[in-house]
Target: Glycoside hydrolase family 13 protein
Amino acid sequence: MNLAALTHRPESEDSFLYTDKTLHLRFHTARQDVAKVTVLYGDPYWRIPDAHGDDQLVYQRETMTLIGTGQVLDHWGVTLEAPYRRLQYLFEVTGQDGKVWLYGDRGLRQNSADARHEAENYFRMPYFQAIDRVKTPDWVKTTVWYQIFPERFANGDPSNDLAGTKPWHPTDHPGREDFYGGDLQGVLDHLDDLQALGINGLYFCPIFTATSNHKYDTIDYLNVDPAFGDKALLAKLIHAAHQRGMRVMLDAVFNHMGYGSLQWQDVLRNGEKSRFASWFHLHQTPVTPFHNPLKGEGQPQYDTFAFEEKMPKLNTANPEVQDYLLMVATYWIKTFDIDAWRLDVANEVDHHFWKKFYQAVTAIKPDFYMLGEVWHRSQAWLNGDEFSGTMNYPFTQQIEDHFFKRRRTAAEMVALLTDQLMLYRDQTNQVMLNMLDSHDTPRILTLAHGDEDLALQALAFTWMQTGSPCLYYGTEMGMSGGADPDNRKPMGWAKLGQPIWKRVAALVHFRRQHATTLGTGGTRLSVTDTGLIKVVRQGHEMLTGYFNTTEHLVAVNKEAVFAQGFVDGQLAPKGFMVSLG
Model:
């Protein structure tokens, strides 16, 4: 047995309260190295005298389930309950070689009665503290999100178009400075279309006053950009969405401000004497002309997002900045009843601020959803006191690497996805945002080289996973687009109700129909002997999906409740089928 591979970390994603009464444990061993893992557990204060009159621990035994196999590790899991809301536990590990070891808080022990009764070597969950349990909003687990880039979704009110607004041509290749006139009225006009599609969550890219078409350079956090409409229109839109059972998520940029903001303009005029100088990270004055190190101009005079001169980075450790941004965050909840914030460049803002943010917004809405933009491992933000979840790029890009780019085999992808699931608590995985494309990535149809069957196969696979799925505007219209800004074309409304729209709508409605199981059920990924990727979701029901990424027909002896390319028991390449049971 590979003893060095045995791992478990208490009070983490390996040991966490899933409900107030249930504890989920995970244990990790070398791949295909261990035959069985048993957890020995009991109340730390429950002891009885042995034959010699000495107190002995009383413990129960529960066999752990192999819940997944990763790149180099097998992952085991079990759910435990405790009548007195406290537990101690020890792992008994049986190797394929027949040897048995005990793994506990003080290290490895050879299996013996004395070692099993060594109280000091038991891990502990000292008390099931309900207040410490990581809580994620249940409604997100049954939500299908739709990401709207407002400037390109629909032009409902030409009267607010900027000078030089371009004609609405969905086949254009937009430039970075182009405007097409999309606005909030356009969204309101098409809410019924989104409802028909099956959407019940609207995720808006920024709508606040800014100079760019993307609005990630905020000038005024407390006003709607005039090219999009006004606060009265936003209130009307949110109310109409809520009437349709749709939640609303706005996008906020608290890492940096726009160049035209009142605060930064004051710094430009007054330098270090500005009352807002401490709101930013100034290193020297004057701050203009900006020194861009990418152009060999030396060290920047102030910190920015990336090396963007017009996006000065905020000093979120400054109490004045904290108070201002928390006022902004709570204002839109109190006044407009939004349900969620998507937080841009969230990993570059300090944890201290995000903890304050969490307390402020959940004090208003306990089930408020906080989604951080983090493109890498996110454990540090996902311990119940900062974000609910993050944009799950590391997960979904593994899918792209197999389905679109063929950088990974099916087995490699399954292993990597399984390892990803082990990074977070179950309730956290359930509210991660799963999207194959967004305003920051090429569109999936372009990644699929224009192959709609392949694009929809990958989308269906993604939507069978744990996590809250998100559709990027225009995917249902078969829109294509390369990297930013080509992925931000004006919406192709002419394909509304056409075959590609119907296929995507069928997927959305399938996810909604089975939302309980797909939102909160267990997930097991594998590859069959015939080369199919198999996804088993166990919850309110059992759903089993098969995805054919081989180059030949594969027989599947199942009845399909949802399928593509499945005829007479044969699953075609680029096809999938989902069965009950």
